[in-house]
Design brief:
The complex is a heterodimer.
Chain A lengths: L1 H5 L3 H17 L7 H31 L5 E8 L4 E7 L3 H24 L6 H20 L3 H19 L6 H32 L4 H10 L5 H17 L17 H9 L4 H8 L1 H4 L3 H24 L3 H21 L3 H20 L4 H5 L12 H21 L9 H20 L5 H28 L13 H27 L2 H12 L4 H12 L13 H22 L1
Antiparallel strand pairs in A: 1-2
Helix pairs in contact in A: 2-3, 2-5, 3-4, 3-5, 4-5, 4-10, 4-15, 5-6, 6-7, 7-9, 7-22, 9-11, 9-13, 10-15, 13-14, 13-20, 14-15, 15-19, 17-18, 17-19, 18-19, 18-20
Chain B lengths: L1 H16 L25 H11 L8 H9 L5 H10 L6 H9 L11 H4 L8 H17 L16 H11 L11 H7 L4 H12 L3 H14 L1 H16 L6 H19 L2 H16 L3 H28 L9 H5 L3 E6 L2 H13 L3 E6 L7 E4 L7 E2 L9 E6 L2 H22 L4 H8 L3 H10 L15 H4 L3 E3 L6 H15 L9 E8 L22 H12 L1 H9 L9 E8 L5 E3 L10 H26 L6 H13 L15 E5 L13 E5 L9 H8 L1 H17 L1 H4 L7 E4 L4 E4 L2 E5 L22 E4 L3 H10 L1 H8 L4 E5 L5 E6 L2 E4 L1
Parallel strand pairs in B: 1-2, 1-7, 3-5, 7-8, 10-11, 10-15, 15-16
Antiparallel strand pairs in B: 3-4, 5-6, 8-9, 12-13, 13-14, 16-17, 17-18
Helix pairs in contact in B: 1-11, 2-15, 4-15, 7-8, 8-13, 10-13, 12-13, 17-25, 22-24, 25-26
Classes of the chains: A mainly alpha, B alpha/beta.
């Protein structure tokens, strides 16, 4: 037992290895040659494998009972009244996130080895990838809001370089600059929140904040402001409508960068909300505001998503919608569920981006048949069946909407989701196919409830639980959520065709262009950075590029030969 | 008067729209000659014109040629020789100076929208391009979006665009809101709108056609797409308005901008237009002529290797083996076959290979059960005449339908606006497995389209049926056409005849069909090989052939096979249990195929992964390449192609052409009326010419004729094409990764195709004279014709009846 006690820091140290390894791998300078590309990409790949191994080792240690958070000292901040601890928080959520993020990074690093093979700048790419991944892992394991803020700012800067990887493309520069407007604002909010929290509670540690909040009767005003600032950070970092423009344009960077963004970095907002959830639940207003922004984003972005005609644009809009949904869950106080969403979506979106070139092959398969439009009757049937299955499931799992009104929204969301399986199934002509759809829908509903319960049970200690009583704005949000999902399902199903054609056309045009928000942001950015964004498109010359690159490679060889 | 004005301007529009070459969609991405619309102009004139209007490069940068000379890949005497033959001065010093000077960029014709771009504002020219491109993506979408643009039945492209733009509110943030009321006044008829635009632009007559071309080329990818729609319509003998409408859209945009542009911008534009009209274009032409000399010099250097190795006499040593081969294998003329054929022949001397188009002479289209439309399986400029259906046992077909339906439901769950959120919470965790399996190559993100929904065992039960209604006479005609094409009409037929189609195995590659068989319209040659062998094995057909005087042994078996060009495996697809087959020769054949696979891999790996040497590692690498979802260079496809040789195989047997030649078997002695030669010169030669020029265009100007960087590709419209990055124009042609290797070296040397034909000069001349399209290509130097004479000497055709020895 005493050994256990003295080794309590084990999990935390494994966690510390993860960012350290990647950042070390990123440090050495690399030239734009083939040789440098090969060594750097391999180094970064192995560093990411080491990070994953460290995460798994930390998981194991955690399960064996080494569960203490680790502090590696603190950097004093004179004049602030608090210091910046170098601490690592060890709990289930940290480990889940660390494992998830390092796994996704391994996949992306491995993918990039071959994918960018032959790019003269591959070494630079690998280094930037390692920097971004390393700093983001720091964000994941940070045990206090100060270190978190430092990590997120560093991640932002290295990601900026990654987004500008093809810096001769004006649109790449534009997207990166747009991102920095929102990112820098969010960073500023976070710094202010950090100072307010540190000033009020005397510590930046997440666990100290939790204890302070639990101990105080009513929330002090600076902490209320901090809660608003954190929510604003979430809104900006998670690309909520109308601040989403930068996220949908990151296709100007290589596919693995899109995967890294959409499957990792973009969750920094949600992570800080989860970490500070004990603070956030104390003040209902900011959380509700977050929920409302999330819901608006869900409705707009998911409709925009269905109109998109390019695969990566569709995936990007889908991320915007999914992040909105996560914020909606945060707003409804369903923190553990938001974590589940984060994990599931991260894995799904990483795969979706990396495999985005396969869409053509999928569409070349024999079409499944079934009619295109959905009749009102089959839609109503599917919805009714969906509600029955999901409400029945919730009842079987012992959930009571009367006790927890969030379940009204959840039942509705799940019902709409599984009814989509049946909407498609009911279009087919054979009874077997239809029955199969109902069965699949039932299974999916059950799986959902199982995973949901598993996450609630696993992470109950790591995030806050919303505290009643239900205020009427909360109930309004629940009602709006249920209604919005019904509306989404209706518009996608039979609803659209009920509208006059001219209305459909106008709706389509507005949605297809993302309600034009981005055009305004872009004009603004041009004024802001008129010097940086060129208007001339680059003129590529393969022959010259190839000559230059070969000359660079040979130069290195000649130099190396001379040195020997 | 007015009438005449409209008449003449109509022909301007017609001329401009016909300058655009088509682009095929991703579900049948065949090579296209990007200069197809310029075939009626000589090569240097076109180069000068494109450089001086659109700013498109048609000839490699001269610094590249200088580098070729520096590294010894090209030599000055060849340049002098080329200069002489093209009628330019052949002074060595002059050429040295020319190669040293940096090229001066030609003066382009600027559009008004480009002149409106200002620093500190979003680019207007980019905005116009994006606006049209986004609209067209929605208009033509082929399966990406769940909510499609509500199209007006019977409405034209222009009318739809007008309606879209009237509801498009992005004009306001762009500072172009004054445009809307003008557009509202405009008629929805494209012709009337075009006339309105023409009147308001008031372009100088001398610059009008060039200006229209620049406008259409500014959205050139989508213009090519519209040209494709027109091409398909023309094959059916119909017409299609969309390309003309697209030009109208772009013209109207320009005219609308003219109404809102500032005085100063307009003045500058007028000035530049005048300047362009007045500049002397002869300097550009001079430069293009010199560029052509450099190009021709590298062609001469390439040809020299071919000519030096062409066999002069038919080998007599192995007469018996050559006269009665045990196996005849018919391969596609594709350059990738050349390597494999060479190795296969070296291993099995009793085997004879024959080159023929990979569609095996079947003018067919094909429909799988459940497909909404047929897909052509023949060269794209021919129309299908027979229709083949996929057949299979009822339970098997039903199982496929059920599986595909289940995956359609799953997809709906995954993607719909109401369910995607719960989807990630329910099924998101399962993507751990998917990510791992796809990374390690255990699973592929999408199955090859024809295999989806079947297990391997189920798939082997499929059959490919010609329509019942096809009469025995028609079948016999088809069979005879095939056999004559293969050149099997005199020397007798071997006991085993292999028909080897080809396809590639690649994963996560939107341009997958670009690696498949071009002669089968971008599909694999599997179906064609199966249908052709079924036809030739049909007892009724065989009896009929004998009745028609064919000397076909009863024991002869035709077997379909497929050459996987990524892994270089050749697999016999069916017919192995035929009792007529001799087990020993079959075993020998299988062994030879396997050995040839290994040798071919060894040869190919030097271009793909020069560091690999261990044969096992090479085999693993080759197999994994096709399954690796991050692999952007699964194979080099046709990179390096430069020659087309139509001659008996013995001329080139044992000659290492390094995968650079299309090999078509042709023996003039067996073709008294030159009917087959006519077919060869108007179909396979044309395909080869298209491929060569596609590679040429993509290499010399990847921005205009190629599709850029694969790591930025963003598939648009499901199967329409790709965008590079976030938006912009539809991209056509080949990617950088298909042309350039990991060490940045170009794997394709841009050359115009050199076609070596062994036939009498008069016959070749007559065929060229009789076929207008071919004549244009040859006379305007888009295609080089050479002749192999009986003694193996080679002459080049300079003009009709003017053949010069080289």
């Amino acid at each position: 037992m005493s050994v256990m006690h003295s080794m309590n820091w084990l999990s935390g140290s494994w966690l510390a290895v993860m960012p350290a390894g990647l950042l070390l791998a990123a440090l050495p300078q690399a030239a734009a040659t083939r040789h440098a590309a090969m060594t750097t990409r391999n180094r970064v790949r192995w560093a990411s494998v080491v990070a994953l191994a460290a995460a798994l080792a930390a998981d194991l240690c955690f399960l064996l009972g080494f569960r203490a958070s680790v502090g590696l000292g603190a950097i004093p901040l004179p004049g602030f009244g608090f210091s910046l601890p170098l601490s690592i928080i060890v709990n289930g959520m940290t480990l889940a996130l660390a494992t998830l993020v390092s796994f996704v990074i391994v996949m992306i690093a491995q993918y990039s080895v071959q994918y960018l093979d032959g790019d003269p700048q591959q070494a630079r790419f690998a280094r930037l990838l390692a920097f971004t991944a390393g700093f983001f892992l720091l964000v994941v394991i940070a045990g206090n809001i100060g270190l978190f803020t430092v990590g997120i700012i560093a991640t932002g800067f290295s990601l900026h370089r990654l987004l500008m990887f093809y810096s001769d493309r004006p649109k790449a520069i534009m997207a990166a600059l747009k991102k920095s407007i929102f990112s820098r604002t969010a960073d500023l909010c976070l710094i202010l929140a950090t100072i307010l929290i540190g000033h009020t509670t005397g510590s930046l540690q997440f666990d100290k904040i939790t204890r302070f909040v639990a101990g105080s009767g009513s929330l002090p005003v600076p902490l209320q402001i901090a809660a608003w600032l954190i929510v604003l950070t979430v809104v900006l970092k998670s690309a909520h409508f109308p601040f989403h423009g930068w996220l949908i344009q990151v296709m100007e960077a290589p596919t693995p960068v899109s995967a890294l963004m959409h499957a990792g970095v973009v969750y920094s907002g949600a992570i800080i909300a989860l970490r500070t959830s004990p603070l956030l639940v104390r003040d209902p207003a900011p959380l509700l505001a977050l929920g409302v922004v999330g819901l608006v984003t869900v409705v707009i972005a998911s409709l925009v998503m269905t109109t998109q005609t390019a695969i990566k644009s569709m995936l990007a809009w889908s991320t915007v919608a999914q992040l909105g949904f996560m914020s909606l869950e945060l707003g409804l106080g369903l923190f553990a569920l938001a974590l589940l969403h984060l994990v599931g979506h991260s894995l799904y979106k990483a795969h979706a981006f990396l495999s985005s070139g396969s869409v053509t092959d999928q569409l070349r398969q024999v079409p499944a048949g079934g009619c295109k439009s959905v009749s009102l009757s089959s839609w109503v049937t599917a919805i009714a069946l969906g509600v029955t299955i999901s409400a029945g499931g919730a009842w079987l799992f012992g959930e009571n909407p009367g006790r927890d009104p969030a379940w009204i929204a959840l039942v509705m969301i799940v019902a709409m989701a599984i009814s989509q399986i049946m909407v498609k199934g009911l279009q087919f002509d054979t009874m077997g196919d239809r029955l199969m759809a109902v069965v699949v829908a039932g299974v999916m509903g059950t799986v959902y409830l199982l995973v949901h319960s598993l996450f609630l049970w696993s992470f109950a200690q790591d995030v806050a639980v919303r505290i009643g009583p239900e205020t009427s704005p909360y109930l309004v949000l629940v009602g709006l959520t249920a209604a919005s999902f019904l509306l989404l399902s209706w518009i996608q199903g039979p609803g659209r065709s009920q509208l006059p054609r001219s209305v459909q056309f106008v709706m389509f045009t507005h949605l297809y262009n993302g309600l034009y928000v981005d055009y305004w942001v872009e004009q603004f950015s041009h004024r802001f950075w008129s010097e940086k964004v060129g208007i001339e498109l680059p003129r590529k010359n393969l022959a010259l590029e190839s000559m230059e690159s070969i000359a660079r490679n040979q130069d290195i060889l000649v130099n190396a030969g001379a040195a020997q | 008067m007015n009438d005449i004005a409209t008449q003449s301007s109509l022909s301007v529009f017609d001329r401009v729209t016909h300058r655009i070459a088509p682009v095929w969609p991703l579900d049948g991405f065949v090579a296209v000659n990007p200069y197809w619309g310029f075939a009626d102009q000589a090569f240097p004139e076109t180069a000068a014109q494109l450089q001086g209007t659109v700013g498109e490069r048609v000839i490699m940068d001269r610094r590249w040629y200088a580098d070729q000379i520096r590294t010894g890949k090209s030599i000055l005497p060849d340049i002098l020789k080329a200069a002489e033959s093209l009628g330019l001065g052949a002074d060595e010093e002059e050429w040295r100076d020319y190669l040293r000077e940096a090229p001066e960029p030609a003066m382009r014709l600027p559009t008004l929208s480009e002149l409106m771009d200002r620093r500190g504002h979003a680019s207007i020219s980019q905005y116009v391009l994006e606006q049209i491109s986004r609209f067209l993506a929605a208009y033509y979408d082929r399966g990406q979006s769940l909510w499609q643009l509500p199209r007006n039945e019977g409405g034209s492209l222009f009318a739809s665009w007008r309606q879209y733009t009237l509801s498009d509110r992005s004009l306001l943030p762009m500072g172009l809101k004054a445009i809307r009321p003008i557009l509202l006044e405009l008629p929805a008829d494209a012709g009337a709108a075009r006339r309105w635009a023409q009147q308001h632009l008031r372009l100088p007559k001398a610059a009008e056609e060039a200006y229209f071309l620049v406008l259409l080329k500014s959205i050139g990818g989508w213009a090519s797409w519209c040209r494709y729609l027109l091409w398909q319509a023309e094959l059916q003998g119909e017409s299609h308005q969309d390309l003309a409408d697209l030009l109208a859209i772009r013209l109207v945009w320009e005219a609308l901008l003219r109404q809102t542009a500032r005085r100063r911008t307009l003045d500058r534009w007028q000035l530049q237009l005048q300047g362009w009209t007045l500049t002397d274009k002869s300097a550009d032409l001079e430069d293009a002529r010199r560029g052509e000399v450099l190009l021709r010099a590298s062609e001469i250097a390439f040809r020299r290797q071919v000519v030096a190795n062409i066999r002069q006499r038919r080998p007599s040593g192995r007469k018996s083996a050559a006269l009665s081969p045990q196996v005849q294998a018919i391969f596609c003329i594709d350059v990738r076959s050349e390597i494999y054929r060479r190795h296969l022949e070296s291993i099995m001397p009793s085997l004879e290979t024959i080159g023929f188009g990979g569609f095996f002479g079947l003018m067919m289209d094909y429909r799988r059960q459940g497909d909404r439309a047929c897909r052509p399986q023949l060269p794209v400029f021919l129309g299908p005449t027979v229709h083949v259906e996929e057949r299979g046992p009822e339970p098997v077909m039903q199982r496929r339908v059920r599986r595909l339906r289940r995956s359609a439901q799953w997809k709906q769950f995954k993607l719909s606006a109401a369910s995607c959120f719960s989807f990630v919470e329910t099924a998101g965790l399962s993507y751990i497995g998917r990510l791992l399996a796809d990374t390690l190559g255990w699973h592929r993100p999408a199955l090859p389209p024809d295999e989806a929904g079947f297990t391997a065992a189920e798939r082997s039960k499929l059959s490919y049926a010609l329509p019942e209604s096809l009469s025995i006479d028609d079948r016999l005609d088809m069979a005879e056409f095939c056999l004559k094409g293969f050149g099997l009409n005199q020397d007798g037929v071997a006991p085993i005849v292999l028909l080897v189609g080809h396809g590639s195995s690649t994963t996560n590659n939107p341009h997958r069909t670009g690696l498949d068989c071009g002669a089968c319209a971008g599909q694999t040659g599997e179906v064609n090989a199966r249908v052709a062998t079924n036809l030739l094995n049909d007892p009724r057909v065989r009896q009929g052939l004998i009745d028609r005087g064919w000397d076909l042994d009863d024991r002869t078996c035709f077997l379909p096979a497929l050459h996987d060009t990524t892994t270089d495996r050749v697999e016999i697809l069916a017919g192995l249990n035929d009792p007529r087959l001799d087990a020993r020769s079959l075993a020998e054949l299988n062994q030879a195929l396997e050995q040839a696979t290994n040798l071919t891999r060894l040869e190919r790996i030097t271009r793909l992964e020069p560091d690999l040497t261990d044969p096992d590692a090479i085999a693993r690498d080759m197999i994994f390449r096709g399954r690796d979802w991050s692999q952007l260079r699964p194979e080099w496809a046709l990179a390096g192609n430069a020659a087309f040789i139509a001659a008996p195989r013995w001329r080139t047997r044992e000659m290492n052409l390094a995968g650079r030649a299309f090999l078509h078997d042709y023996d003039a002695a067996k073709d008294p009326g030159f009917g087959l030669l006519t077919v060869i010169m108007t179909a396979p030669l044309m395909v080869a010419n298209w491929i060569a020029l596609q590679y040429y265009g993509s290499t010399v100007d990847n921005q205009r004729q190629g599709c850029g960087n694969k790591v930025l590709h963003n598939v648009v419209g499901g199967t329409i094409g790709v965008l590079e990055g976030n938006g912009g124009d539809l991209r056509i042609g080949l990617s950088e990764q298909s042309l350039r290797d990991s060490n940045s070296g170009l794997q394709h040397e841009p050359l115009r195709l050199s076609a070596f034909i062994e036939a009498p000069a008069q016959a070749i001349d007559r065929i060229i004279a009789d076929h207008e399209i071919l004549r244009r290509l040859v006379d305007n130097r888009w295609l080089n014709i050479l002749r192999i004479s009986e003694d193996g000497a080679v002459q080049e055709r300079r003009a009709a009846d003017r053949w010069v020895s080289i």
